[in-house]
TrEMBL record:
Residues 36-50 have a biased composition (Basic and acidic residues). It is found in: Cytoplasm. GO terms for molecular function: 3'-5'-RNA exonuclease activity; metal ion binding; poly(U) RNA binding. Residues 102-177 form the CSD2 domain. It comes from Rostratula benghalensis. Keywords: Cytoplasm, Exonuclease, Hydrolase, Magnesium, Metal-binding, Nuclease, RNA-binding. This is DI3L2 exonuclease. GO terms for biological process: miRNA catabolic process; mRNA catabolic process. GO terms for cellular component: P-body. It holds the Pfam family OB_Dis3.
Amino acid sequence: PDVIIEAQFDDNDAEHGQDHLQDTLVDDIKKLSLDTGEKGDGVHRAKQDDGPTVNDPRLLPDKFLQRTAKVVYILEKKHSRAATGFIKLLADRNSELFRRCAMFSPVDHRVPRAYVSLADCPPDFVTRPEDYSSILFICRIVDWKEDSNFATGQLSKSLGQAGEIEPETEGILTEYGVDFSDFPPEALECLPQSLPWVISPGELAKRRDLR
């Protein structure tokens, strides 16, 4: 019951129009009807010749079938669920949702828009929303209900003015889950402490010089 068979046509069929597609489909079904009818008697063959009355999709040519599928399980979440974007007030000012949520619009249009709580937004956002029209925010999608057109998100932080290098770079790194925090002291202790550091002649002798 989860498999739905639909009509499918390629670019060549599209160029000739829908009428050409229909005529081709009728001709192919008639050929199939004749082939299957030859195994029976003359009455059965005459019935099949009347037109495209075959309801069994297995008798249709593969070029007219489109196989569809249904997602049943998510093995691995590849996206970080974090996105960079802007916050806006909801359009319907009289709704109950307007008093509780704002709309987060991601810069990447592949990511869905999300409702975010007004408690996560800046304190003066409701009274001065125009001040934040060009401020980038990081939002993480936490849920998406089946009966809602928009996901539910949580604002993580404000990045700064859109178009500037540092906020834009931090947003990209956060979206792709890149750790750009400072190195811990344990990692820094592995580096040479006496600066400036140069490679010793003995070490150079053991290396291949690719400079």
